[in-house]
Each structure stands twice: as structure tokens, then as C-alpha cells.
From TrEMBL:
Name of the featured protein: Pyruvate dehydrogenase phosphatase regulatory subunit, mitochondrial
Alphabetized SUPFAM superfamilies for the sequence: Aminomethyltransferase beta-barrel domain, FAD-linked reductases, C-terminal domain, FAD/NAD(P)-binding domain, Folate-binding domain
Species assigned in the record: Papilio machaon
FAD dependent oxidoreductase central domain residues: 456-511
Domain Aminomethyltransferase C-terminal, chain residue ranges per copy: 824-911
Amino acid sequence: MLSGRFRGSIKSYWSVGYGAKSLSSRDVLDQHETLSGCLSTLPKKAKVVICGGGVMGAAVAYHLARRGWGDKTILIEKERVGSGSRWHASGLVGAFKPSLAQVKLAQSSIRLLQDLEARGRPTGWKQCGSLLLARTRDRMTVYRRMKSQSVSWGIQCELVTPKRCQEIWPMLNVDDILGGLWIPGDGVGDPHLLCMSLMREAVENGVGVMEDCAVTSVLSKHDKVCGVETDHGAIECEYFVNCAGFWARQVGQLAKPQVKVPLLPCEHYYLHTKKIDNLDPMTPVVRDPDGYIYLRERDGCILAGGFEPVAKPVYEEEIGSALQRCVAEDWDHFHILLQELLKRVPSLNQAVLHKLCNGLEAFSPDCKWIVGEAPEKLHPATCEDKEEGTSKTKNKEKNLIVGAFECLNGLLMSLHDCDQCEILQMFNYHVAAGMKTVGISAAGGVAEATADEIIDGYTKYDMYELDINRFLGLHNNKRFLRDRVKEVPGVHYGLPYPFHEFETGRNLRLSPIYPTLREKGAVFGQVMGYERPTWFEPVEEEKVNPQEPRPFKIAYTKTFGKPHWFETVQREYWACREAVGLADYSSFTKIDIQSQGREVVDLLQYLCSNNVDVPIGSIIHTGMQNERGGYENDCSLARISENHYMMIAPTIQQTRCKVWLKRHLPRNGCVTLSDVTSMYTAICVMGPFTRNLLSELTDTDLTPSNFPFFTFKELDVGLANGIRAMNLTHTGELGYVLYIPNEFALHVYNRLMTVGEKYGITHVGYYASRSLRVEKFFAFWGQDLDTMTTPLECGRTWRVKFDKDIPFIGREALLRQREEGIRRQYVQLLLTDHDHEMDLWSWGGESIYRDGNYCGQTTTTSYGYTFKKQVCLGFVQNFDKEGNPQPVTNEYVLSGHYEIDIAGIRYAAKVNLHSPNLPTKYPDKERDVYQATRRLHEPEKFLGRHYQP
Ligand SMILES: Cc1cc2nc3c(=O)[nH]c(=O)nc-3n(C[C@H](O)[C@H](O)[C@H](O)COP(=O)(O)OP(=O)(O)OC[C@H]3O[C@@H](n4cnc5c(N)ncnc54)[C@H](O)[C@@H]3O)c2cc1C
């Protein structure tokens, strides 16, 4: 129940005091500071047009101006600058974020706040520190992990006792508190003040600001943004930045082609008390995530809000203006937070309430910011060439890429040439939106990255996890968003257990064998909307009602120690090592790339760091590097015929790697690209008996002399044909990945299961595959590799065609690095004194110590069922006394004594530079010689002439 007095106070305030004098002018929706120097007419031309004069748009304008593009930039705001953020007043600013990229961006934002304040520009920045409270042991573990990560992230923090928590915040009730984390560098800011200060400085440095002007359309020509239409006329431009915050999704729809910015608003509540006597203005921020709440001091009052587990979504088109974004309060919905607030600060019961604010803020489906250049492409029917007044279909010869036809939200593309369709990019359309309720922490850093991307073409940090290209069309489906965003705000304060899964928006992308796998006990995780088995629960054969499908089960871990699925995954792991495991790999990105002549070979030679001009039937594992040598993509390419390759790339790359490819396709349309992800079901069979099994189902001779390791063949399997079979696995085990036309998938699966019975065939989920690949020291893009990591740093120098005089993107950078030496090295670390039953596990992101000094961080980790040890993959560096990274050599790596810090306890670790050979009952020459990381032997000698690294 609500506290009668508190609720009474609020009610009485609402009924009696609604028009009363407010405590802060910034709360008053109809008052605002004005920005002088705004434009009265819209110029005809600019280089960059920013849409939205909230804190994000202001920060982008500021950073572009700082880099000398001020007089080339126009910011357009449909109301008044800062109107969107006038009342967003919680103002919490914290450096800790869930990932390194987000931490770096937040730290850059804090530096900007400090810098502006130091120069007399008000931002509301107050470094009052923040205190995180723990009610549970798991929450304390999270703080211990954060404390251990803080070394690598450069955040000062301290674990504190409940008593110390109360000293820091005397009003707190700490009866149920186990401890906390004190972060002295955190603070508070004011988005409106920050926005106005950034805007003023931007205007002083040449940025033109047009208020009361709404963007109505964004136009493109020859694949690039070419202009913007507004209700005050049109403006030509080369770059467009969508900073429309709350309305970014709608503004995306104004573009031709439409740009998908998947976000949807939710209600967000906080309340203000009236003034509280003697409240110290430097009172720290308190976050009590187990109670979903936060509190801070503001203008002598308490401001308190929270992130309830189930939020209330709103449709953005129903909210026309900033004023309407402050919607009526819903006390019943706020109840859960109010209860917790009163429990944590009982004296609030005596406070007089000023008001409850219900502000709306937009969230993306994965609770991350949306940043980067949009991936959209154009359908000619929607693209009018304004200047020439013609449809672009008429200009097809000029700029079509024939044959690639994308439909169904980008999931299906036909293989045939299609003259109705074309792929045209919408280059130079940038997005900086989805800032959710941490916009001030984001603004400075995200804007700096946006300005860098526009001017330099790349950002200083790897940002793929925030990249707008992480989405597919399905993520922008409004019903999907409406369901999903209910869960999203709660993620802020939820316990960040490993392998978090959302519960909404599920059962969306399903492989043809999904119903069968579900019946067989699959427990699912979702990736790019795809349901992927994570492990298989044992199922009792008899169901009460055989007609009823088995319940849909979502994977969960909910511990930082030994997970409940340990034994299940162990069983699957051993099936892959000693019998046959069958896994559904359908979610992997599959793209056919082909041409009439040799053009596809030339293109791929330019895009790939490995040599792709290999015999037909070979499979090449290669990176696609950027100019800096980092991985834009890591893929397998099967040469299907002279001028036809099939590319297999990570699931999360389905949009992103296509954008990279399309960006480099020849303009004359001679190379075609078809996304066949949704056309093929991928079944991987792993284990020593897979050759025997598959041989029973096909007439093709599968012996190594006819079908060697790392080669491709089209097979008949069972009664089906046209199955693209690759002799490789992503886990280092002997086996095949079968890419099966969807209509044959169930048939092939059934045959494999029936014949496989005598070989002990077992369903295998993603977690077992992960354990296998970590133990085998296989790097994965998006987990170990990113746009900043080079092949030389991760033990793949031998996969770079340095010995061939063939230009490729990144070659110069890699040659330079080879000359100068690497400054970080990918290693495998086996924990030698860790008890997997009793100790907390490593889950990635742990600090690595060498001879007692911090030297790097883990990326992916797993329990290794053969080693019977925790296995960590990660990067080791060599810092000098000033903390600057120095060259790293094998000798340096091997001469150190290593420890991994797991939540404050350091475990000794043995370092490996090479993929280890795991002991096995069934040694296999092919498999054992293959090294995913670094070359030990001369594999060609063992693997035959077909073998290409
Ligand atoms: C209740 C609440 C509490 C919050 N608390 C915090 C906090 O504690 N810490 C924190 O860091 N953040 C907090 N935030 C979030 C933060 O305020 C926002 O993330 C940030 O203000 C968003 O800024 P923005 O510039 O992206 O979007 P907005 O402020 O929404 O600005 C977008 C602008 O685009 C304009 N626009 C839209 N469409 C068009 C068009 N067609 N043409 C021209 N202009 C257009 C709009 O008028 C608007 O001015 C909170 C937000 C809310 C709602």
C-alpha cells in the first residue's frame, strides 16, 4: 500500500497546488531560454543538415563546429532549440555503462560537461558522486565485477559497507543493504542547460540554426543524401543527421528511401519534493537498482524516479510537440517505484510533494543507443528524381546493381536478375538517436563519434554494438517495438546476468526445423530475431496431450557462478567430441556473390585480406579489413564456380556486412549480391563419426581425397538434392555444415537423425558450440574481433596475402603494423586454480594481470570440458610506466605470469598462443593439424592441395 501521508500530500498538491510557484524555472514547460543568432530564413545550401535541436543535435553541431565545419552546418528544429529536453530533468550522469564503447562515450560526455563548465558555459554539471546499493548477493557480485573492470575502464570507484552507505547518504535506510559501490566521479547535469550552451558555442562557431522549421522530407540522388525539404522551403546538403530523439523513427520515414530507426517511447516517471531543510547540494545520486529506483538532490529538493520492470509504451505520432511529451501521471503504474522509494528513504514520508512528472522517452529494442550511417537502399518506385522529374528506373544503366532483390524487410532476396528492383544506398544519412533516459551521458561522446564518422569516415572506438546496422527491418515493426519496449527500460536496473534474453518479440524468425527442435527439448536464445537453440533439455517421451506443442522455453543463466545448464551442455559437448552433434546454424548470414566474368574475383580480392583466387570448391576463411586494418567482417567464402562465391558471415552481420559489400560493388552492376540467409536451413553435424553418417546418406565419396577439409561440394542427401555442403565446422571438430534449401530441411534433418542414431547423434545448442570454439581458441567477430582488431593482433597473419602483390583494403595499414609490431596480442588463458563448482565464473570483460600489473581484458570465456578448466580468450598489452602501450612479442607474452580478476579474486592462468590440440579418443589428421589461431605446422602438407587457410 502507498503511504497515506505521502500519497495524500501528492494528491493535495495536485488538487490545491497545481498552479503554485514552481521550485525551478526549468520545470516550467512554458518558459524557456532563447537562443540568439538564429536564422530567419533557411539557406539554400549546406554541407550538413542536422534535424533536431535537442541535446543530441546541439552536441553534433558543437562537435562539427569544433572540427571546422561550423559554417557548413545548419541545424533545423521544428520548435525551439532545447524544447525537447526542457523538462527532462533527472539529469543523472554516470560513467559506468555495460560495455567499453559505451563507457568511452560516457567519459567523453563527462569531459565535455566539465570543459564547458570550466569555460563558464552552464551545464548544471555537479560532481556529487553516485552511490549504487545492493540488496542481494548477486548485485554485490555485479559491483565487485565493476570494481575489477574499473581498472581497465579508468573509472575510480570503491566498494563500501552498508554503514558507509549511510554515512554517504544519511537519510537512507540500509537495513536490507549488503553494501554498495561508490563512484566519486559521477554527477548530475541539466540537458536543457547543456543543450543551450552547446548550441551557443556552435552558433558562435558558424553553425546556422533555424527554429520553428520542420523537416518534411529527406531526398537522395545517386545513392547519396542530396537535400532536405522543410515547411520553410528546401535546402541542398550532402549529409543529414537524424537527431530527432523521440521522433527519430518518424523522421526516418520522411526519407526517400525510408530509413528505419527502431525505437518507441515509454513513460518515465520521477517526482519532486518541495524543499527539504538543510539538504546538502552535493548530496550524491543514489541508485538502488534492486528496488528499480534512483534519488538525487535538486534545488534543495529530492528528485526521485526509477525504471519499473514493465514499462508503458506510447505511440510517438500521438505526441506532436515537446509540451505534449509530459503526459498525465498514472499513480497505479508509479506505485511500485513509490513503495520502494519510501522503503529506502522513510523520511520521504514527511516530505511535501511538489509534483510527479511523467515524461516520455524513446527506447531501442535492445536498450542501446542508435548511432551511425543508415544502411537503407532505394526502390525506384519510391524515388523520384526531383531535378530531372524522372523515375530512377529510367537511369538504370547508370546506377543499378541488377539482380539483387530484397523484400520482406530485407530477409529474402531472389537469386534471379530482377529489372524491377535495384540496390541504391542512401549514403550520408547519419543517425544519433535512441538516447533513452541517459541522453546527457551519451550526448558528448556520441556526437563526437558522429562528427568523426562524417568527417573522417570512421570513429575512434569500435561501435558496432551501437551501430544502426545491427538491426533488420523486423526491428522497426511497430507491433514488435510496442511489445519489446515494455521490457527495455527495466534492463537499466535489471541484474546483468550472462546471456541476457528478452522475453517479448519472440518466436519471430524460425527455421523449418524449429518446431521439431522445440519438441526435442530446445531452449532458445534470440539473435537477429532468430530463435536459436542454446541447449536441449531432456524430454520425457510421453506428453499428456500429444497434440499440444511443448512450451516455448527461453534460455536463462541467472547466476555468475556455475550455471544450471552445465551438465546438459557438457553432454552435448561430448557428443561433438566423441560421437555426432547436430546443431541448427540457420541464423548465420549467407550471401551469394557472383558475376558473369572475373569481376567478382577482383572485387573480393580487393575486399578480403586473404587470397580468394583459389581452386573451385575451396573454402577460404578471410577477414574483410577496413583502411586501418581492422575487421569489418570475418567470413568463410566457398568458391562455388569460377565466378560465384557463397559467403558465410556471423548472424549479427546480416545488415552490416551487406552494407560493406554494397559500398564497394562496381557501379556498372557487373557483380550481384543476393542475401540467401532465409533460403537455406543450415544444419551442422560435428564429431568423429560425421563422415560415416553422411556417407550413408549420399552417393558422393566423402573420403578426404575426394572431399577434403575446407572444401565445398553440392550433395544429394537422402532424397533431396542441391545441398551445399562445407567440410568444416566453427568449433574445430570434424564435421560438415549443410546448407539445405528450406523445403528439404525437414527431410534431411529426419534422415540425419534416423541414420545418426547408431552413431549416438545428439542435438546440440549454441552454448556447447561456444564452449568448443573457446577451448579451440577460435575468434568470433563481434565477440573477440572488431573494427579495431587486426589479423596480426589475433594470430592470423598467415591469413593475410602479404606474399601476393594484390592490393586490398587495409594492406598498407597491415604492412605498417608488421613493420612496427603489434601493441596487443590475442591469447588463450586457462585458469589453473579455479574451482568451477565453488568459484564465480569468468563471463568476459575481466581484467588480466601480468606479473601483478594490469595488461588487458578478456573477451569471450567458457568452461572447457576437456581441459576441465575455465578458458578465457582476450588481449594482452604491454604498458610502460606512463601507461602507453608498447610492442608486444611472443616472448613478452610467454615470459609473464598471468592472473585473471574475477569479481575481486585473482586466479592464476596459463597462457597459450596457439590453438591447443585437445586429447581425443578419435585422433584425426585433418582436424588436428588445423590451427584457427596462428600457424604451427605446414597445414597444406597434411590437408592436401585443396586446403586454403
Ligand atoms: C523523464 C526523463 C528523465 C530523464 N533523465 C535523464 C537522466 O537522468 N540522465 C540523462 O542522461 N538523460 C535523462 N533523460 C534523457 C535525456 O533527457 C534525453 O535522452 C535527451 O534529452 C534526448 O535528447 P535528443 O536530442 O536525442 O532528443 P530530444 O530532446 O527529443 O530532441 C529532439 C528534437 O528534435 C526535434 N524534431 C523532431 N522532429 C523534427 C522535425 N521533423 N523537424 C525538425 N525538428 C524535429 C524536436 O522538436 C526536438 O527538439 C531523461 C528523459 C526523460 C524523459
